[in-house]
Backbone:
């Protein structure tokens, strides 16, 4: 017997591979995170303070005084999307998250989901890398006049997330836990204070269609914007290999993150609406920093200043959560031989996928500097986030399909509602969101971003077909569960014995679930 890097015993078989029935080896440190760290991984990915400060404008543009209703509906709809990671997490423990889930669902599903997710992984970081610069430009107009001040801000933001994630899952998740807890508490408490100060002018009208003349279409468009505000709530699953007892705890972390994010965004959305004036929200949408204005009016310079600090911290927390999630997804794909075969090693001391972290830093820095240089930080960020939104919905649709297929195989009890109706409905909702995001085609650079996103999705299907035809051996065991009770299938051991070394297990230790 020998000890793997997690300190767990692994019975060695032929050529160093585990015997059938033994735990699949993992180099990520199990037991490093708890339920709350996992929950705030998801919460930090949402970054509600940024929405409260300035980013609810897209929703307000359509919903007006009914903005709280739009946010509430979006949160409930995203709850339907959460069913897929929740149900999968009960059976599969894998840092690849939706990639791993889709891999177990249908042939080549992981290759398709991972391709779509790469599209989001490359463009989504702009929310913090360029978004923080845009936020600071709103506060300090003199910065925007320099023409270059955004670049060092972008680099520093990216470096913050990369360094913390590189140094270990414990320091990175503890930061997001502490920062996220204060962010949630601040947003909830201050929202209650604002609502109390508004007094009799607070009204349930904000949760009706009265302010938009019962126009359900406008509400529907606002909901589309708000659904994307909750993107990332499922990313706690990327920490599943580091959460001991993941199959019995991860679903709790997922629902906890969803609940906290909902309260921390819906309640402030209502406070901002009644604080600004339910019937004056058209002016809210035309303001550059409406959230900050409301906070300064009701909470003075102290409340205004704390919101600024919390928002900056929220962007940094998002950056940390982003690096943690993306690099584990890439690492999982790499050890399975899917797309990232050369970045599948784990740091011996920090137990982090450091190669994926370094690749992330180089690629994301280049993409954001180019986009920011050509379009400016605000427009460059919007351009990249347009692509991100379309791609992440594609990931959800693939994973939803994978859940139905996985549960229908007969190895687990199939629940018609949880495994059939809800995933299908979620995919339909996702398709509608994509449709209204790309049609009618926006003008200018955003329209080009929409075309790029659609081309990326099309290339994903081509890549999927290529993997199915050329590398069926890699797909067969891709995304296998690596939980504390996950057995190595005998066929996987046979594959290793046949001379197919794994991708990321280190010298002399072929990985049975990752034939290359």
Residues:
């Amino acid at each position: 017997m020998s000890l793997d890097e997690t300190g767990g015993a692994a019975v060695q078989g032929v050529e160093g591979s585990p015997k059938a029935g033994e735990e699949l080896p993992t180099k990520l440190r199990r037991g490093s995170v708890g339920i709350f760290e996992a929950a705030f991984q998801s919460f930090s990915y949402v970054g509600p303070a940024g929405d409260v400060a300035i980013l609810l404008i897209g929703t307000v543009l359509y919903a007006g005084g009914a903005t709280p209703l739009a946010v509430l509906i979006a949160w409930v709809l995203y709850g339907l999307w959460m069913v897929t990671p929740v149900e999968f997490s009960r059976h599969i423990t894998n840092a690849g998250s939706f990639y791993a889930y889709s891999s177990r669902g249908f042939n080549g599903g992981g290759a398709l989901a991972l391709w779509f997710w790469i599209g989001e992984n490359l463009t989504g970081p702009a929310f913090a890398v360029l978004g923080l610069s845009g936020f600071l430009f709103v506060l300090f107009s003199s910065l925007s006049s320099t023409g270059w001040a955004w670049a060092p801000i972008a680099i520093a933001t990216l470096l913050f997330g990369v360094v913390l994630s590189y140094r270990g899952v414990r320091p990175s998740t503890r930061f997001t836990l502490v920062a996220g807890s204060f962010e949630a508490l601040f947003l909830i408490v201050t929202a209650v204070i604002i609502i109390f100060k508004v007094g009799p002018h607070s009204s349930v009208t904000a949760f009706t269609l009265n302010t938009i003349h019962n126009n359900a279409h406008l509400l529907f468009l606002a909901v589309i914007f708000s659904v994307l505000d909750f993107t990332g709530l499922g990313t706690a699953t990327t920490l599943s290999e580091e959460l001991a007892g993941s199959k019995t705890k991860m679903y709790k972390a997922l629902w906890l993150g969803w609940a906290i994010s909902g309260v921390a965004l819906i309640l402030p959305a209502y406070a901002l609406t009644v604080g600004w004036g339910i019937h004056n929200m058209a002016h809210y949408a035309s303001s550059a920093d409406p959230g900050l204005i409301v906070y300064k009016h009701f909470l003075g310079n102290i409340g205004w200043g704390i919101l600024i600090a919390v928002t900056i911290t929220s962007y940094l927390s998002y950056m940390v959560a982003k690096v943690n999630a993306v690099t584990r997804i890439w690492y999982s794909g790499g050890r399975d031989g899917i797309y990232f075969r050369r970045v599948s090693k784990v740091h011996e001391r920090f137990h982090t996928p450091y190669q994926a972290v370094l690749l992330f830093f180089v690629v994301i820095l280049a993409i954001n500097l180019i986009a920011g240089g050509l379009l400016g930080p605000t427009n460059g960020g919007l351009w990249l986030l347009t692509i991100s939104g379309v791609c992440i919905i594609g990931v959800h649709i693939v994973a939803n399909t994978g859940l139905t297929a996985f549960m229908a195989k007969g190895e687990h009890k199939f629940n018609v509602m949880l495994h059939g109706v809800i995933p299908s409905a979620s995919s339909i909702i996702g398709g509608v969101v994509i449709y209204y995001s790309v049609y009618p085609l926006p003008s200018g650079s955003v329209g080009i971003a929409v075309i790029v996103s659609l081309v990326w999705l099309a290339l994903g299907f081509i890549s999927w077909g290529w993997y199915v035809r050329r590398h069926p051996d890699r797909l067969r065991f891709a995304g296998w569960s690596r939980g504390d009770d996950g057995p190595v299938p005998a066929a996987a051991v046979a594959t290793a014995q046949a001379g197919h070394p794994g991708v990321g297990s280190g010298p002399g230790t072929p990985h049975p679930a990752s034939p290359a």
About this structure: Residues 1-26, 490-516 have pLDDT under 50 and may be disordered. Residues 290-335 form the longest helix (46 residues). Residues 32-478 form a domain with the Amino acid/polyamine transporter I fold (CATH 1.20.1740.10). The chain is about 70% helix and 0% strand.
